[in-house]
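Appendix B. Extra example for self-study. Work through it before the problem class; the solution is given directly after the inputs so you can check yourself.
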Amino acid sequence: MGLFDYAIFDEIRRMNARQVIYQFLNFAMIVSSALMIWKGLMVVTGSESPIVVVLSGSMEPAFHRGDLLMLTMDRDDPIRAGDITVFKIEGRDIPIVHRVIKVHEKSGKDDSKFLTKGDHNQVDDRGLYAPGQYWLTPKDVVGRGKGFVPYVGMVTILMNDYPKLKYTVLGLLGLFVLVHRD
Amino acid sequence: MHSIWSRANTIFAFTLSVLSAVTFCCFLSTIWLPNTAPVTISASNPRLKSMVDYASDGSKSDVVMLSLNIQADVSSVFNWNVKQLFIYLVAEYSTMKNHLNQVVLWDKIILRNEKTVIIEESIPPKYYYIDDGNNLLSHKNVTLVLKWNVIPNAGYLAMAQGEGQFVVQMPDNYISGRF
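Solution. Structure tokens for the complete assembly:
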């Protein structure tokens, strides 16, 4: 039996050219729907990355590695102590999810400086900031954590740790959508 | 629907759909519940020093030491969708240099099924109370409030404030010597 004699390929053998094109169109619809949902979320929340996966255990026991955090970015809402902010240090790409413990606001919400600390860490984040930087400012903030879903982000972490797994899963999914009739 | 693969696929897809629906309902079921509770805060014996903040940019700042009393019963905030409460005591005040200052003096994590009554008597602040500059001498209006962050099993991360506050009045002189 050749590769294409298996039962799962029965449907593709029964398709003519028009139906094959329809399958590709189906695939394109799924991809563009996913993209629309993602971009729509970006608009609704105002954040560049509306969903982040927690990568480290520095906010345990609230957030464990692999949990999903939904962010909003409202520049008109000032940063206050206790907010869970996702920020990026200048020069580094990795976003950090920690809690604000000190806020000093000079005159308006844009003129404020604040200090963060992970719940599970013993010391504040000054060691993580850039050399010579002792405070964060609102422009370092990528978003504020507003929603939480546990465990779901583990898939992303696994796919990043084992890239071959990512390619296999995506490849199989793509193949399945192209081949399956409905 | 006769091969093991199509059955496994259907079961898997159905499990995922049911799990997401249940998670969404879990989130919806507790979203409008109130998260506040009464608290009793007091502080005594505030002492001020002006010291070089070596952890920051090396400039001199006011450092406050005081004795805190916190009493709260947060058991009414816990419901089936609350995983933990992150409770923190904030000193809020306004100075000539900064119109708003918030410094967290103490925090505590309470997981579900742990003791939900907080009784802290005569404790020093857990984190150094350092001002941004020297603006606390004779400050008569430093407000201590207890706030908490409700971390759900799934859903909205809510913030709430305890009902009750305390106003600390800073002394008019620095102390010399150690705290």
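Self-check: The first strand of chain B starts at residue 39 and ends at 52. If your reasoning did not lead you there, revisit section 3.
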